[in-house]
Amino acid sequence: MQKHRILLVDDHEIVRTGLRQLLELEPDMELAGEAATSADALARLRQADCDLVLLDIALPDRSGADTLKLIRGAYPDLPVLVLSTYPEEQYAINLLRAGASGYVRKDAPGGEIVRAIRQVLQSGRYISPAVSEMLVSQLRPDATRPLHQDLSEREFQVLCKIAAGRTVSQIAAELFISVKTVSTYRSRVLEKLGMRSNAELTHYAVKNGLV
Questions:
Q1: 198-207 vs 179-193: helix crossing angle, rounded to 10
Q2: 58 exposed, middle or buried (CB, 10 Å; 0-12, 13-18, 19+)?
Q3: 146 in helix, strand or coil?
Q4: Cβ count near 137 (within 10 Å)
Q5: What is d(CA 42, CA 73) in angstroms, rounded to the nearest whole number?
Q6: CA 152, 65, 63 angle in degrees (round to 5)?
Q7: Rounded to whole angstroms, how far apart are CA atoms 79 and 209?
Q8: What is the DSSP string of 41-94?
């Protein structure tokens, strides 16, 4: 039986241990490697082949969204299943737009995580019942949803970085874009969210669990 090789990317050893034990129970899956940081994950991808990346959204050296962007750029056909402690309404839609193959909660039952992995490997996409309901609800004309779900991928990244205390120069360096472009995205975010300052953006992000 062909075994699918999975790279685990999470900065918490106890989480990696649990996921490793979960994969060891599946006859068609095996561990390709583990990484605790974004840099380590990218290095391991260069060293060994894998069929899927299980990616934590919160890493100590770079956000999961930024790591996803880098993986997508270097390995466009490699599926990335995002793991998170955050509820789906906070990040799922934006990360799916950014190229994630699926979004699953860390506190989901082990069987659901395995199903998500298999579904991504087989069809390239995993949509949980919660995310599916969110997508359907957005089609209703009277639907209410978090304002940040209307932001583009780049706008969402800039919002999260501003809320995390990054300066315009730091954001430009991290996203490999100009300071002027960052300022343009910031202006768009302020306009779409109906806000006037970084303080308001930070308050919104904290209130909605984005940082």
A1: 60
A2: middle
A3: coil
A4: 12
A5: 11
A6: 135
A7: 26
A8: HHHHHHHS--SEEEEES--SSS-HHHHHHHHHHH-TTS-EEEEESS-HHHHHHH
Which residue is associated with the tokens 């050893």? Answer: 13
Helix (H) or strand (E) segment spanning residue 33: strand 29-35
**Residue 100's closest CA among 79, 129, 76?**
79
d(CA 167, CA 200): 15
Structure tokens at 41: 């994950």
| Tokens of residue 158, six digits | 């800039």
The SS3 of residue 4 is strand
pLDDT digits (tens, 9 = 90+) for 150-207: 888 788 889 989 998 999 999 999 888 899 999 999 999 999 999 999 999 999 988 8
* Both structure tokens of 166: 């990054």
Are 105 and 162 within 8 A, CB to CB? no
Largest CA distance in the chain: 58
pLDDT in tens, 73-103: 999 999 999 998 876 767 788 888 889 999 9
Cβ atoms of residues 204 and 189 within 8 Å? no
Helices (H) and strands (E) counted in the chain, each on its own, are 10, 5
